Amino acid sequence: MKLKQKDSQIAKLIDLETTRQKTTLQMIPSENHCTPAVREALGSILTDKYAEGYPGKRYYGGNQFIDMVENLCIERAKKLFKVEHVNVQPYSGSPANMAVYVAVCEPGDVTMGMALPMGGHLTHGWKVSATGKFFKPVQYGVDEKTHLINYDDVQKMATEHKPKLIWVGATAYPRIFDWKRLGQIADSVGAYLVADIAHIAGLIAGGAHPSPVPFVHIVTTTTHKTLRGPRGGMIMVTKKGLAKDADLAKKIDKAVFPGLQGGPHENAIAAIAVCLKEAAAPAFKTYAKQIVKNAKTLAEELKRHDFSLVSGGTENHLLLIDLRNKNITGADAQNLLESAGMSTNKNSIPYDPAGPFKPSGLRLGTPAITTRGMKEKEMKLIAGWINEVISNPASAKKVAQEVKKLCKKFPLPK
Ligand SMILES: *Cc1c(COP(=O)(O)O)cnc(C)c1O
């Protein structure tokens, strides 16, 4: 029986969300629109199957096809990211990161990561996260003037605190990471180095951001951001990782199951496999490069309208606007733009004087609007609309109509 007949309330809410996504611009940089093929795998009968364990070593029978699904997913990820070992079972990015701690740290070990208000992620040791409670994190930030990671400071901090594990990766850093330098820093203190590429996995897969793989031991990622798959996570072990610790792959697998999780979501793993196949196709390279071109154009246009950008611009898929010269808070700007059909999100800027509850920044990105096929021409329109709405809130309704018209021309992926 169809959902509509079985549960009209949920069916109706899904319809409403579908319309919202179709008729407005999704510019939260961690979001994207996956293809119907990915959703078909995600909504498949594979959701019914228990498969605790790993291919060939399950705790349940009946996994002959599930094993093939998971192996295919692993092989595709290994090939795409050029790594030695992949675990595709983490339920999402945060559980993937937790598994890395469980694999290589003991409770109370010193770890190092970028502070959340500087653009890092909760799971890199921020105090409200379990990772900040069970371990002893030291946190680096960005330079107050340039808003770039100061690698000399990172080296100093590593030398002083001798962390067991160093995290690199961000949710609001618009610049390229110097993986080589970070690799040298980690090696100088004997730390495991993890690249958390949750935001930029699709850019890396598409050749639009340098890969950390030659320089780090472990790579973690989500699969639903620029990689454009279902919600999920992966942990990868590199050649360098195996050279440092021959048991690293085994430790990671044991940390995921039985350390932290039970049965893997094989429907999600099948959907990840589909997204990895899409990401290996030539068209994905074009897509990844266009994400960056679009972000650059959006940044240049916003600067023309006197918007101030953290770090002065962008080299990836996202930009962070410092709204202080516009006399509006991040929250108010987010709400205002939402009423004009543009979904963005409030975010702290580095050294934010307003504090984390009323941040001065607005974070936006181009992965989802690029998936719809938008290019530089549309970015100029969008920057103009953002400027119009922020300078004259009364224009929001009119702009929402124009956004809707643009959305009609650029449908969601088929
Ligand atoms: C999104 C993100 C995560 C966590 O992913 P969830 O799937 O939301 O748990 C981890 N690290 C970074 C850098 C992220 O951007």
UniProtKB/TrEMBL annotation:
Keywords: Amino-acid biosynthesis, Cytoplasm, Methyltransferase, One-carbon metabolism, Pyridoxal phosphate, Transferase. GO terms for biological process: glycine biosynthetic process from serine; methylation; tetrahydrofolate interconversion. Its cofactor is pyridoxal 5'-phosphate. The record marks H224 as: Plays an important role in substrate specificity. Gene3D superfamilies: Aspartate Aminotransferase, domain 1 (3.90.1150.10), Type I PLP-dependent aspartate aminotransferase-like (Major domain) (3.40.640.10). It is an enzyme of class 2 (transferase). It catalyses: (6R)-5,10-methylene-5,6,7,8-tetrahydrofolate + glycine + H2O = (6S)-5,6,7,8-tetrahydrofolate + L-serine. Its EC number is 2.1.2.1. CDD domains: SHMT (cd00378). It holds the Pfam family SHMT. It comes from the Bacteria. One of its GO terms (molecular function) is pyridoxal phosphate binding. (6S)-5,6,7,8-tetrahydrofolate binds at L116, G120, H121, L122. Residues 3-386 form the Serine hydroxymethyltransferase-like domain. Its main location: cytoplasm. Pathway: One-carbon metabolism; tetrahydrofolate interconversion; Amino-acid biosynthesis; glycine biosynthesis; glycine from L-serine: step 1/1. The modification N6-(pyridoxal phosphate)lysine is found at K225. It is found in: Cytoplasm. GO terms for cellular component: cytosol. HAMAP family: SHMT. Belongs to the SHMT family. Homodimer. Catalyzes the reversible interconversion of serine and glycine with tetrahydrofolate (THF) serving as the one-carbon carrier. This reaction serves as the major source of one-carbon groups required for the biosynthesis of purines, thymidylate, methionine, and other important biomolecules. Also exhibits THF-independent aldolase activity toward beta-hydroxyamino acids, producing glycine and aldehydes, via a retro-aldol mechanism. This is Serine hydroxymethyltransferase. The lineage of its organism: Bacteria, Candidatus Staskawicziibacteriota.
